[in-house]
Write a structure and sequence with these properties.
about 290 residues; alpha/beta; Glutaredoxin; 7-stranded mixed β-sheet; 7 strands; about 40% helix; about 15% strand
Amino acid sequence: MHDSFNLAWKLNLVLRNIALPSLLDTYELERKQIAQQLIEFDFEHANAFLAGDAQALAQNFDDNIRFISGVGAEYKPNKLNREECEGSHSFKGMLKTGAILQPARVTRYIDANPVDIQLDIPFLSQFRIYFFVTDIHASMPFLVEVSDFLINGESVLWRASKIAKGSYELFPLKETEADEYLQPERYNGLSKLFTPAIITTMEERVEIKDLPAMFRHSPWTFYLDDVGSRAGSCTEKWLGGLYNNEITIINVRPDGYVGSIGIFEAGDGEKAKRWIDGYYGEYLKG
């Protein structure tokens, strides 16, 4: 299944002329590594089973439980998976580039519905860009600067989004029965290439109309981090928390794997713009 996810979105973007052909090189680079790990696990497991060594069998299972469940299938650094977190201090969260998003619960603002954030935005061959803020009002200048950049002609993402728009108009996706439940228009109305989301821990009231234009166009991906669990809130679990007025941006690939993580201060708008453009400019035709 992960083989299919990995290849499908890359083929889609390359065939639609949205991404550079070199993007396809990352398929073998990433999945061959996972296949080798699976072979090694099966080899050790089969040998322990043949030898009747229950202890070795159990140990091999324990050592590889994250991998065989799919959660621990992690890709090494490459153009899609930035090894280092951009930011002024070390990253202490559970998220890891080259790994899938961890489960976490938040409240979807528009309908006050508790949701699993890692699953709420459906797989539509689009990137997801999560903005985590402690205080939307205090972070507003940063959010306006960066989001306005992403939806104007200067950014790689928006230039690539224009290519995507033309391609999907010429070769639209076929409608499926699942669309009635997924409602893709909630998530690709702004762009066929990326879906922005904003998550905040603030308790002070805020309205969708108060958000920058990019986020107003994606009202279904505005979340309040107020559900929590034994592992803490989504912000605590994913990021290890945020300092006051700090903004963290997470770029997530269309197959659900974390691509890059950036931590910024309120005055780092220009830095964040260059960082986002640098990431997507590696493989998109912008």
